[in-house]
Amino acid sequence: MMDVMNKLKILSDAAKYDVSCSSSGSNRKNTNKGLGNASVSGICHSWSDDGRCISLLKILMTNYCIYDCDYCVNRSSNDLPRATFTPEEIIDLTINFYKRNYIEGLFLSSAVFKSPNHTMELLLKVVQTLREKENFNGYIHIKGIPGADKEIIDKVGMYVDRISINIELPSEEGLKLLAPQKNKDSILKPMGQIKSGIIQSIDDRKKFRFSPKFVPAGQTTQLIVGATGDNDLKILRLSEGLYNSYDLKRVYYSAFIPVSTSPNLPVLKSPPLVRENRLYQADWLLRFYGFSANELLNEDKPDFDLALDPKCDWAIQNISLFPVEINKADYHTLIRVPGIGVKSAYKIIQARRFRSIDFMDLKKLGIVLKRAQYFITCNGKHYGIKSMDSEKIRKTLVYGNQINSGHEQLSLFDKVSIEDRFIQIGGQI
Amino acid sequence: MIHYIYDGSFDGLLTAIYEAYYRREELDDIVPIDSMEENFLIQRIYIDTDTEKSKKVYEAIENKISKEALRRITYAYLSELPRHGIDILKYVQLGFKIGPQVDLNLSNDIVLKIDNIRYKVTMEQHRLLGLVRFRELKNGIFYASLEPDFNIVVLLAPHFAARLANENWVIHDVKRGIGVFYNKEEWIVKDIQIYDSLIVKEEEEEYQELWQTYFKSIAIESKVNPVLQRRYMPARYWKHLIEK
Questions:
Q1: H or E segment at A162?
Q2: What's this model's pTM, rounded to 2 decimal places?
Q3: Do A12 and B105 make contact, defined as CB atoms within 8 angstroms?
Q4: Residue A51 backbone dihedrals phi, psi, to 5 degrees
Q5: Cβ contacts of residue B145 below 8 Å, gap of 6+?
Q6: Which residues of B touch A50 (CB under 8 A)?
Q7: Selected residue of B102, B214, B242 to mutate for chain A interface (largest A Cβ count, 10 A)
Q8: DSSP class of residue A224?
Q9: What is the pLDDT of residues A153-184, one digit of tens each?
Q10: Interatomic CA distance for residues B232 and B223, integer angstroms
Q11: B166–A361 CB contact, under 8 Å
Q12: Do A101 and B214 touch (CB under 8 A)?
């Protein structure tokens, strides 16, 4: 018998490439003096050495897999230590971690063990016991196994807060090449079913207040960036479709980390982290800033500028829409200004109701002018720029104010990209 | 320069605000007794806490300004930042002039300052909801120690009372010598003696090791980023964590 410590090491290591960590979107209450509740905004409990938020106990039930997908570390042909948790072990870890406030809940995933249905049944047993026997009301995120029957997924949905089914490869060609045992249908069909289940449950709750919630925090998915030749436009259009047609809460992007030397995979020196960050920023623009994929990219320019964030990139391509007058522009126009996010726009709108505001006021409100200064006026005045020449603005944004020798340009450029790695996802874009 | 000196309680602060109105004195600051500064120019006036006066101020703020204003004043008080006393007085004066709309007036320096303090205190509160670490003691009590920048244990209590409803727990602010105690029914804030040595339950260390193992193995080596980690989880909080 392998001890729990070793299993935890193996099965959390195997789960770490799933980037989702969110514990938000559910307001499950603690009933009958049970253990735990969910916080709508989500809570991070720690940050691992790679700077990612740790919110949930993220583990696989098992990493024994019948599939052999090239891009995946758990593929059956990969020689690595394997382990399987018993349901009791998972429950004990979850409860004891939760009581010590290490975690917000459980994110349980699994490799495909024996069959999709068999795996899904085992996951069901864990969540059913946690909810019904242990009276656990903390957050639970379950991975839907592509190919599992609707009946089992429906049952799981009654116990959990969130389900995700990972698309991973953003095109059919990609799937055929790297994961021939999966297909588009086995992924999209259950996503459609979960969507209907959620709509059904919301309807039912309008009629019968106490009918149970089904996946109250919605569903999410993950796309791997850089394992296939798919460009940013293709990925972003897919995300847009998932938000619009499948009501997804989030699409996560994961820079591909080479975990095998299969000839089907690209050779990468390091994971494309800046590209991953650009996609997250663009994703934010789709969900909160009213942009569409086709505004940000097109067939002539299908990939993001790695040196500029997508909003700056867009603004420079559409320089005729600028400058924007801070004292007049409406909310939707303000949030399209580079450097002005949702919060800043609200602050501006509130503050200018009392009197017109100038650049000093913007600074006092905590609005960062680093990028915004090139795209706005306050009472008709520019902030120290002489023309709206898009090429000049782009250069200043990328290289800073002085353009000197070629050597320094290069180092400044490097500085931009490293800094970009640290841009906070969800901050003011 | 007149300083009002109060006993450090929230009621004391509100009494001082009452007196400032009643006496119409030009104040330089309102200061809790344990953080008085030595300065020859300061004229100190000691304010006796009077719960009837403080209640009047409390209700006036709630009714004439807003519940939100009351919340902001509480947060500014808990921040214990330099000059928060006089800032609160100015904010209250402005609030009585403008009414419920006061907080929208962000181009006003004092409104903005109170808003920034609210933001900082809320940030730390939210951060610590995640960073509190309980250890299970031999007697079954879950004990957590911390040293927050602001005096926020009182803001953490309702969250854990709902979440760990069926446990006995203590959250100990070591820096201020106070703690929240919860007994499966209700919570209170009390002064707390420093425990010489807390005896933990046998399996406690096992779970701590499991957590440390998990913490290590969940990080992706090729993405290691200590700068980002520190930005989210500043090093001053590490002392009371188990994983760092």
A1: strand A162-164
A2: 0.89
A3: no
A4: 80, 10
A5: B172, B174, B240
A6: 219-221, 223-225, 228-229
A7: B214
A8: E
A9: 999 999 999 999 999 999 988 888 888 888 88
A10: 16
A11: no
A12: no
Percent of chain B with pLDDT over 70: 99
DSSP B237: G
Q: How far is A300 from chain B (nearest CA, A)?
A: 32
Extents of the domains making up chain B:
2-123, 132-240
Mutate: best of A11, A24, A99, partner B, most B CBs <10 A: A99
Q: What is the DSSP letter of B198?
A: P
pLDDT by residue (tens digit) across A124-141? 999 999 999 999 999 999
| Shortest alpha-carbon distance between residue A392 and chain B (Å) | 31
- Find the residue in A nearest to B123 (Cα): A43
A-B contacts at Cβ under 8 angstroms? 157
Is 60 exceeded by the pLDDT of residue A418? no
How far does B70 lie from chain A, in Å, by closest CA? Answer: 20
User: Does A105 touch chain B if contact means CB atoms closer than 8 Å?
Assistant: no
Arithmetic mean of pLDDT, B57-79: 97
Copy the structure tokens of residue A319. Answer: 């320089």
Contact flag B220-A17 (C-beta cutoff 8 Å): yes
Compute the C-alpha angle B51/B53/B57, nearest 5°.
Answer: 110
- Those residues whose C-beta lies under 8 Å from the C-beta of residue A31, and which sit 6 or more positions away, are A135, A137
Q: What's B99-165 look like in SS3?
A: CHHHHHCCCCHHHHHHHHHHHHHHHHHHHHHHHCCCEEECCCCEEEEECCCCCCHHHHHHHHHHHCC
From A45, which residue of chain B is nearest by alpha-carbon distance? B130
In this model, does residue A409 exceed pLDDT 70? Answer: no
Give me B174's structure tokens.
Answer: 């070591």
Dump pLDDT digits (tens) for B178-226.
999 999 999 999 998 766 678 899 999 999 999 999 999 999 888 889 9
- Which of A310, A307, A284 has the alpha carbon at shortest distance from A296? A310
Residue B32's H or E segment, with its range, is strand B27-32
A51 to B226: CB separation less than 8 angstroms, yes or no: yes
Say whether pLDDT at A106 is over 60. yes
Amino acid in the structure at residue A292: S
Query: Given an 8 Å threshold on Cβ–Cβ distance, is B219 in contact with A52?
Result: yes
Domains of chain A are 4-296 (3.20.20.70), 310-421 (no CATH)
Q: Is A188 left (phi over 0), alpha (psi -120 to 50) or beta?
A: alpha
Give the pLDDT confidence of A184-236 residue by residue, as tens digits: 888 899 999 999 999 999 988 888 877 788 999 999 999 999 999 999 999 99
pLDDT of residue A182: 85
**B235 neighbourhood in chain A, CB within 8 Å:** none
